[in-house]
Amino acid sequence: MSNLLHFSLSRNNITGPIPGTFKGLQKLQYLDLGNNGLQGSFIEEFCEMKSLGELYLNNNKLSGVLPTCLGNMSSIIRLYIGSNSLNSKIPSSLWSVIDILELDLSSNAFIGNLPPEIGNLRAIIALDLSGNNISRNIPSTIGLLKTLETLSLANNKLNESIPSSLGEMLSLTSLDLSQNMLTGVIPKSLESLLYLQNINFSYNRLQGEIPDGGHFKNFTAQSFIHNGALCGNPLLQVPKCRKQVKKWSMEKKLILKCILPIVVSAILVVACIILLKHNKRRKNENTLERGLSTLGAPRRISYYELVQATNGFNESNFLGSGGFGSVYQGKLLDGEMIAVKVIDLQSEAKSKSFDAECNAMRNLRHRNLVKIISSCSNLDFKSLVMEFMSNGSVDSWLYSNNYCLSFLQRLNIMIEVASALEYLHHGSSMPVVHCDLKPSNVLLDENMVAHVSDFGIAKLMDEGQSKTHTQTLATVGYLAPEYGSKGIVSVKGDVYSYGIMLMEIFTRRKPTDDMFVAELSLKTWISGSLPNSIMELLDSNLVQITGDQIDDISTHMSSIFSLALSCCEDSPEARINMADVIATLIKIKTLVVGANTV
C-alpha cells in the first residue's frame, strides 16, 4: 500500500516483532502501533521512512537498543516509545532531530546521562524521560528549550544540583524532577516562569529555602515532601528558615550610609550616558527577534536581515498583497530564498490575524503546508518568514493567459490540498480549521507541489470540540452555508470550500463569475449538467491541450464533479470526509496513469 498516509492498529492484542516491510510505506506520515503486545526491537527500517512524521510504539514489549539511525528521521515530529523494555543508552543522534515537537521515552530502562546536545531540540514542546536509569546531572543547556511546555525527568538517578537555567524555559507549564538524588537548592530563577502550573521536587535531597515568588505561592506541600533540609513557609510542612543576623561595625555602617550611595549614583550616571548615546542607533533595532517562539521553530531572523534580503522591501521584490498586508520575495545571506509576509498594523484585526496564524502554525508540520521559517515582531512591525514558492499561486496558473495546467497537474494539486486538510483536521494534536481555502491560498513550489498557506483566520478546535463560532467572514463564494449565515466554523466548512475549489480548478470558473446570477451558482450549474454535459463544464483550455485524450479524461470527470458535490452538501453532517476524498482521487489518478501507460 505504497500510497498509504495514515495507519493505526493501536489498542489491539497484536504480538510478535514489527515487520521490516514497513519501509515500503514511503509516503506514510502517521503510524500508531501503540498499546499492543509487540516484541523484539525498534526496527531500523523506520529510519528509512522519509515522510514519517508521527510514530507511536508506546505500551508494548519492545526490548534492546534504540538505533543510531534515529538521527536520520528528519521529518519526525512526534515519537512515543514509552512503557517498553528498551535498555540502551539514548543514541546521541536523537538530539539532532531539531524539528521534533513531542518525545516520550518514559518507563523503559535507558541508561547513561543527558548530554549538552539536548539543547538542540529548539522546537520541542513536550519531553518525557521519566522512569529510566538516567544518571549524573541535568545539563545547563536544557535552558535553551524555550518552547518546552512539559518536562518530566522523574524516577531516574539524576544527582548534583538543579541548573538555574531552567528559569529560562519561558513556556514551561509542568516540571517533574521527583524521585531522583538531586542536591542543593531550588533555583529562585523558577519564580520568573509565568506559565508554570505544576511542579514536583519530592523524594530528592534538596535543601535551603523554597522560593516564595511567582507561582510558588500556589504550590502545595506534596511538591516538596521527602527532601532532606528544605525550609520556608510552614504551610508547605517544612520548618521556617533561620535568618543569619550579622553585627555591622561602625565602619561598615558608614560605608553603607555615605560612600555606597555615591558609588551607586556614579554608576547610574554612567549608565544613563551610555543609554542616551546609543538610543538613536538602537531605536529601530528594537525587533524582538523571537523567531518562532510561538511556532515552535528554532530559526531566528532579525528585522535588519529581512531589510537586507528584500532590498529594503523594494518594489522589485513585491509579490502581492491581500487583506493582511504585503508579501515580498527575499534572499538571505546564505542564498536561501524566502517570502516575507508583512502585516499591516493599522487595524487591530490584522494584528490579530498575525497572532492567529502563528498560533495555528506553531505545531504543524506537513509537506503540503507552507513552511513557516521564522517570524519578526515588535510594536511597529510584524512579519512571517516563509519558504519561497517559486511557482506562485494556483489561482495565477489557473487564470493565466500564457500557461495551462494539465489534467494530471490539477488532479495532483487537489490530492495534495486534500492531504493537507486531512492532516489539519485529523492528523494534528489539535484540529485546525483553515476557514479560507481557495486557489489563491494554495502555492506551488519549484516541482509544482501544492502547499496550503495563509492561516490568518484559522481556528483551533479544543479537545472534543466539533465546531465553534466566529464573526470573521472569509472569501465570498467559498463559504459553507452555516459559516456565511450563522458564523459556525467546523472542519466540515473546509470540506465545503474544498468542493468549490475542486469544481473551479477543472471548470476555470470562479464561484463569483458573472454568469452565476439569481438561482444559478457554480454548484447548481455542475449538478444540473451531470452526467450528460461534461464537456460543457470543462475548462476550454484543458480540452484544447488534452487533444485526443479528452474522451478518456471526460469519463473520470463525472466522478470528480460528483465528489465535489458530495463535499458541498448543504448539511455539514452529509458532507464527505477528507480521507475518503483522498482515496477517491488517488483511485482516479491510478486509472488515468494506467491508461496513459498502456
Automatic annotation (TrEMBL):
<protein>
    <recommendedName>
        <fullName>non-specific serine/threonine protein kinase</fullName>
        <ecNumber>2.7.11.1</ecNumber>
    </recommendedName>
</protein>
<dbReference type="InterPro" id="IPR001611">
    <property type="entry name" value="Leu-rich_rpt"/>
</dbReference>
<dbReference type="InterPro" id="IPR000719">
    <property type="entry name" value="Prot_kinase_dom"/>
</dbReference>
<dbReference type="InterPro" id="IPR051809">
    <property type="entry name" value="Plant_receptor-like_S/T_kinase"/>
</dbReference>
<dbReference type="GO" id="GO:0005886">
    <property type="term" value="C:plasma membrane"/>
</dbReference>
<dbReference type="GO" id="GO:0004674">
    <property type="term" value="F:protein serine/threonine kinase activity"/>
</dbReference>
<feature type="domain" description="Protein kinase">
    <location>
        <begin position="313"/>
        <end position="592"/>
    </location>
</feature>
<dbReference type="GO" id="GO:0005524">
    <property type="term" value="F:ATP binding"/>
</dbReference>
<keyword id="KW-0325">Glycoprotein</keyword>
<feature type="binding site">
    <location>
        <position position="341"/>
    </location>
    <ligand>
        <name>ATP</name>
    </ligand>
</feature>
<keyword id="KW-1133">Transmembrane helix</keyword>
<dbReference type="InterPro" id="IPR011009">
    <property type="entry name" value="Kinase-like_dom_sf"/>
</dbReference>
<dbReference type="InterPro" id="IPR003591">
    <property type="entry name" value="Leu-rich_rpt_typical-subtyp"/>
</dbReference>
<keyword id="KW-0597">Phosphoprotein</keyword>
<keyword id="KW-0812">Transmembrane</keyword>
<dbReference type="Pfam" id="PF00560">
    <property type="entry name" value="LRR_1"/>
</dbReference>
<keyword id="KW-0723">Serine/threonine-protein kinase</keyword>
<keyword id="KW-0547">Nucleotide-binding</keyword>
<dbReference type="Pfam" id="PF00069">
    <property type="entry name" value="Pkinase"/>
</dbReference>
<dbReference type="InterPro" id="IPR008271">
    <property type="entry name" value="Ser/Thr_kinase_AS"/>
</dbReference>
<keyword id="KW-0808">Transferase</keyword>
<keyword id="KW-0677">Repeat</keyword>
<keyword id="KW-1003">Cell membrane</keyword>
<dbReference type="InterPro" id="IPR017441">
    <property type="entry name" value="Protein_kinase_ATP_BS"/>
</dbReference>
<dbReference type="Pfam" id="PF13855">
    <property type="entry name" value="LRR_8"/>
</dbReference>
<keyword id="KW-0675">Receptor</keyword>
<keyword id="KW-0418">Kinase</keyword>
<keyword id="KW-0067">ATP-binding</keyword>
<keyword id="KW-0472">Membrane</keyword>
<feature type="transmembrane region" description="Helical">
    <location>
        <begin position="254"/>
        <end position="276"/>
    </location>
</feature>
<dbReference type="InterPro" id="IPR032675">
    <property type="entry name" value="LRR_dom_sf"/>
</dbReference>
<keyword id="KW-0732">Signal</keyword>
<keyword id="KW-0433">Leucine-rich repeat</keyword>
